[in-house]
Amino acid sequence: MTKIQIYKFGGASVKDSLAVNNLAEILRNRLRKDLIIVVSAMGKTTNELEEILSKKLQGEDFSWNSANLKNFHHAICQELFPAAHPIFYQLDNLFTQLDNALEKPLSRLNYDEYYDRIVGFGELVSSRIVAEFLCHQELIVLWKDAREVIHTDSYFRFAKIDWEKTKKSAQKIWKPLLAGFPILTQGFIGSDSKGKPTTLGREGSDFTAAILATSLDASSVTIWKDVPGVLNADPKLFPNTRKFEELGYQEAAEMTYFGASVIHPKTIKPLANAKIPLYVKSFLDPEAAGTKIHENAPAHQVPTIVLKKDQVLVSFKVTDFTFIEEKHIHRVYEQLQELKLRVNMLQLSAISISIVIDVQLFKLEQLLEKLKSEFEIRYNEGLELLTILHHKQDEVGAYLEGYEVLLEQASRNTFQVVRRKM
Asked: Is residue 251 within 8 Å of 300, Cβ to Cβ?
């Protein structure tokens, strides 16, 4: 029996009409039954939808942003389809749904649930366009809504998977269909027990591919990127990068934990547990080998550099001349969890707790408001968090030239520094 395979195409691989044509060419000799294709929103659509939400929350006019987003997708379709194609009606219908959803009131109290209802439109629009274009090219696929099989809790924006229910739905609803046609679906989105839309965290389409792979006992997952595979640094930021031919699950998981953007952090664990190999390949050079992530890969000692931008350093200092105790750490983490803020770096001193977090709309001021009565709080914005795995001490200094260092820590295998341009 043929084993199911999962392909995932990110935003860069569907960013315009040329990219969508390239995706079709990649699939032309690879499309077959028992294949699921997961697609992300086109280009920077998710960022645009977040900007619309930001404007709405602040009471600003977002009509230009909304019209611009619709025109962006409309222009892509004009280059891909004949004028009378049904995709234009489908596109108008989806953007009408988006406009209707945006008419509902938004506040900080319902922001996360509202976010999930709005931002998932990017994947719905993208997947419709790609599915229709593949069929137009006589590459027949079934468009399916991921929310009918990806079941989650109601932890909006960072929903947790109901694995048992998801596997049952995938096996019952989608597996019989794969005997006849490949399926094209969306990454990033799911639904809770009440049918409300949820999302799996930014860049969560990789995770969707892993969820479907483990739920359907797939033989492999392939993520198509604009890089030749998994590199030891982002080639846009650092010169002389090296590609890993193979990586073990643990090493890949460590890279994603510290923020390597090539794979979503939650992707590795379910694949490792199920022993399903993950391939990272280039959609610009689809015949190249890429990187294989699997159980028996050799360990590496190559320095791996991960840079996270738009970071905030927050320091909580006790005000009653006591030392930091477990109860202080618990209070800070309790509020971080409530606000869905992930700690990228933690450092403790005798009298303070310092954390590094991503920028999230209005969440920092909420954190400060909740803890200001218990701590003296200081923070710095617009920072970078640089992590070097398997670092060489004599080479670290080169990454600090021209930067002010605000926080630094090192272990045997990991060096981290919070820095900003001088």
From this structure: yes
What six digits make up the tokens of 128?
A: 């419709």
- Least Cα distance to 223 among 293, 132, 159, 270 occurs for 293
Residue 16 corresponds to which tokens in the numbers above?
Answer: 């315009």
CATH 3.30.2130.10 residue ranges of the chain are 304-421
* 121-136 vs 111-119: helix crossing angle, rounded to 10: 10
Nearest CA-CA partner of 182 in 37, 283, 22: 37
pLDDT digits (tens, 9 = 90+) for 72-121: 999 999 999 999 999 999 999 999 999 999 999 999 889 999 999 999 99
Cβ atoms of 203 and 262 within 8 Å: the answer is: no
Q: What tens digit of pLDDT does each residue of 19-51 get?
A: 999 999 999 999 999 999 999 999 999 999 999
Q: For residues 78 and 91, what is the distance between their CA atoms, to the nearest angstrom?
A: 12
Reported as a single tens digit per residue, the pLDDT across 54-66 is 999 999 999 999 9
Residue for token pair 């599915």: 131
Dihedral (Cα; 255, 261, 264, 268), 10-degree rounding: -30
For residue 134, give Cα distances in angstroms to 28, 64, 138, 379.
9, 31, 6, 50
Characterize the bridge pairing of strands 220-225 and 278-282.
Answer: parallel
| Domain 5-225: top CATH class | alpha beta
Per CATH, the homologous superfamily of domain 304-421 is VC0802-like (3.30.2130.10)
One-letter-per-residue 3-state SS of 115-181:
HHHHHCHHHHHHHHHHHHHHHHCCCCCEECCHHHCCEECCCCCCCCECHHHHHHHHHHHHHHHHCCC
Give the integer Cα–Cα distance in Å for 2 and 36.
13
CA neighbor of 41 nearest in space, from 104, 131, 125: 125
Give the dihedral of Cα atoms 230, 232, 236, 237; nearest 10 deg. 150
Tokens, residue 67: 């019209």
Q: What is the dihedral of CA 265, 268, 270, 272, to 10 degrees?
A: -160
Domain with CATH 3.40.1160.10 in the chain: 5-225
**Residue 317 neighbours by CB under 8 Å, 6+ apart:** 351, 352, 375, 376, 377, 378
